């Protein structure tokens, strides 16, 4: 008789658990190669100790431009470099045309809105938004005129600083936000409006929280942290507060709605809701209205204002570039009028500088995650339907095959040997394919008019020397934000 009969049973249980864990850690057949994951943790131990992007770029050196990493228990395919990203997002656009199902957006957007929806919801709402905003922006007055009107207010605010050092964050953020607010909410805000300040603060706080360790842990283990209190919940509380703000605006619109004369995106959406009332399959309901309005507000304010702030910092860091831009503005536009969109073609160095700012800072370095819509055959691998894919935009915008010496800030990346502007296929700050940013046209117009108008009217200088300026981003997770800095705006006349 065995003295401890339970030992054999225990060994069998332990062996079964070990086999189960080993099987759990295996990469599904057909996916690209990558580091061996641990059960549950995935490759987190290999990715620790430095920003996620740096860890992923290091793995690319070993596994090539297409590889698999386990973020927690989830396998994620990484695409690096222009060629791989183009082949997936453009050449196989239908296969890679869905937005990845991420725990954070599943709890906030819940499949609604434009940015993080899929299927019919995304198709109908995107088509509707593009049509509605085009009509609203180009109907009574052009979008360029709206931008120039807002620029008049901003330039007045900058002149009032008297050349004293200021942090440009809120000045630029609220000015950019007012443009999209006028299209979505029907009106801009006074610069001292407390509601605008709160809305912008919540937006920026959530952008920072995406780089928070607790939020990142929630993204990996939502089943564990979801029911628990903790700092990760602040992101969801902020989103709910933003939705409550939009709900208040919607209620005011409902009280004053005139179907024959829509004032903005919300009015247009409400009219469509009335038209499709009673249709059980309609995508035009209140939740889609609230979330899509927030999607448009965030996309139309946060990334553009961050690019402007980062761009000014780079021009302070490299004053010879700013001086050459100002010389071109003076030669083409002069001092008597504001720059306009038609000036861009005659300002190749300025156009190249704005492109180089966007390339160099790569404001969304990891790209917004995609998901395969069906079993995708790609470079000899098979990515099952529902596979999460990260198109690493940083690796495209810094691809040495397309941008020589990519870590150097140099407008010549977009100029030919005769000084003419030269397009570059690897310039994809707005992503590519079917899920590319729908606001690209508005953002490009805003960036050109804001940069040229400010540099036309003001000399910019840093209170500290250019060599002492730190251009390292304040945070670099899902998106980048420049560090806080001060700048002196001195009127040029």
Automatic annotation (TrEMBL):
GO biological process terms, semicolon-separated: epoxygenase P450 pathway; xenobiotic metabolic process
Domain of life the protein comes from: Eukaryota
Alphabetical UniProt keywords: Endoplasmic reticulum, Heme, Iron, Membrane, Metal-binding, Microsome, Monooxygenase, Oxidoreductase, Signal
Gene Ontology molecular function terms on file: arachidonate epoxygenase activity; heme binding; iron ion binding; oxidoreductase activity, acting on paired donors, with incorporation or reduction of molecular oxygen, reduced flavin or flavoprotein as one donor, and incorporation of one atom of oxygen
Cofactors (names): heme
Reaction(s) the record says it catalyses: an organic molecule + reduced [NADPH--hemoprotein reductase] + O2 = an alcohol + oxidized [NADPH--hemoprotein reductase] + H2O + H(+)
Matches recorded under CDD domains: CYP2
Sites where the protein binds heme: 437
Record-linked PANTHER family: CYTOCHROME P450 2G1-LIKE-RELATED (PTHR24300:SF153), CYTOCHROME P450 508A4-RELATED (PTHR24300)
Job of this protein: Cytochromes P450 are a group of heme-thiolate monooxygenases. In liver microsomes, this enzyme is involved in an NADPH-dependent electron transport pathway. It oxidizes a variety of structurally unrelated compounds, including steroids, fatty acids, and xenobiotics.
Protein name: Cytochrome P450 2B1-like
The organism of origin for this protein: Alligator sinensis (Chinese alligator)
Highest classification ranks of the organism: Eukaryota, Metazoa, Chordata, Craniata, Vertebrata
